[in-house]
Amino acid sequence: MECLTLGVCGHSVDVVAEPGAPAAGDGEAMRAVARDYRAFARREARGRSAPYEALAEGVAEDSALVGFIASLPPAKRQPQLVFAAARYLLGVPPAISGLHDLVSGSPAELLQVILARGTQTNEPARCAILLPALAQLPPPLALIEVGASAGLTLLYDRYSYDYGGHPLAGSDPRAPTLRCRPSGPVPLPARIPAISWRAGLDLNPLDVTSEDDMRWLSCLVWPGEGDRAERLRAAIGTARRRRPVVHRGDLRTDLPALAAQAPAGATVVVCHSSVLYQVTPPGREQFAAAVRGLGCTWLSSEPPGIVPGTAMPATDDQMCVLARDGRPVARADSHGTWLQWLGGPPG
To answer: Is residue 346 part of a domain?
Structure first.
């Protein structure tokens, strides 16, 4: 039996794991896993990744696979992580037969990857969600991203953008063009704001120069999602030409020290996208208090209600709420494909 400390985008927990060990209250845990995988198939993968929709449905009907997943620590049972770990070992997106082979033939190896890794998806297109809000702030900007992963969503000024025919050229001609469909009174900028300083914070930063780390990052892209894999490869190339700095640290406690390094005269912005939902509610409150104590601008893109004061009806399970200092300003797709500004004058 092994005790491990796991990091999830800003907090750590100790878990006890044993390959193939029955979960506590295993019947209840297995029912919960089957239910969660069916929900993932129908509410998240459907319309976005047909292979993962089929795989999740298949897992939910397979007692051996459900039993293995139910034996994992609760924080490690999510389909995105289990499927990415299988892909990491298989070299291809898993089908039900490949996942079966791993669980029956190499359960300890699969367990090791699941426990060692996390869902550190670093989708560069999320920059298109926050950019209009960033452009409303006085430049130059000093950016701090929490849960930064490999730092690909710190590179706002290097990417180019296309907001439904409204183009913006970034500073790196080889960087990808991020396409986002705007609706409502989106304050589309005339130019990308100047960024004088940037830094990330993550419990387990991924290194863009590490082939293994970038292999893991690519395994987190779902099969069948259009040009996401190609965009990720181009963004990694962009980051390798001028590597962003991502510090190892806890978003609940290490943010003030990092913010103190921002240059004088810059507008300090703390930002994050699809990160805080993985932190416990007390951890979110602790983080929110730390941000507010800095007196900076806080931009967040998270599922509804994750940031206090941002609860609203969701149009689908991929919807996030873009908020400035805890006040909702827009709805957005979690992967940056669309942005709907809320009514009223922007700002």
So the answer is: no
User: Is there a single domain that holds both residue 28 and residue 144?
Assistant: no
Q: What is the pLDDT of residues 162-210, one digit of tens each?
A: 999 999 999 999 999 999 999 999 999 999 999 999 999 999 999 999 9
Residue 287 has pLDDT above 50, yes or no: yes
C-alpha dihedral sign at 290, 295, 301, 307 = positive
Which residue range forms the structural domain that includes residue 67?
A: 2-116
Q: How many Å apart are CA 204 and CA 194, to the nearest integer?
A: 28
Mean pLDDT of 323-346: 89
Q: Give the SS3 label for residue 82.
A: helix
Instruction: Give yes or no for a contact between 240 and 208, defined as CB atoms under 8 angstroms apart.
Output: yes
Q: What is the mean pLDDT of residues 135-146?
A: 98
Number of independent structural domains in the chain: 2
Name the pLDDT band for 57 (thresholds 50, 70, 90).
Answer: very high
Exposure string of 143-176, with b = 16+ CB inside 10 Å and e = fewer, is bbbbbbbbbbbbbbbbbbbebeeeebebebeebb
Greater pLDDT, 247 or 225: 247
Taking the model in full, what pTM does it have?
Answer: 0.88
SS (H, E, C) 215-241: HHHHHCCCCCCCCHHHHHHHHHHHHHH
* Buried/exposed code over 302-322 (b: 16+ C-beta within 10 A; e: otherwise): bbbebbeebeeeeeeebbbbb
Q: Estimate the share of the chain in helix, then strand, then coil, as percent rounded to the nearest 5.
A: 40, 20, 40
Q: For residue 137, is it within any domain? A: yes
User: Is residue 299 a contact partner of residue 324, using CB atoms and an 8 Å limit?
Assistant: yes
> Per-residue pLDDT for 8 more than 80?
no
Q: Does residue 319 sit in the same domain as residue 175? A: yes
Rounded to the nearest 10 degrees, the angle between the axes of helix 96-105 and helix 50-60 is 50
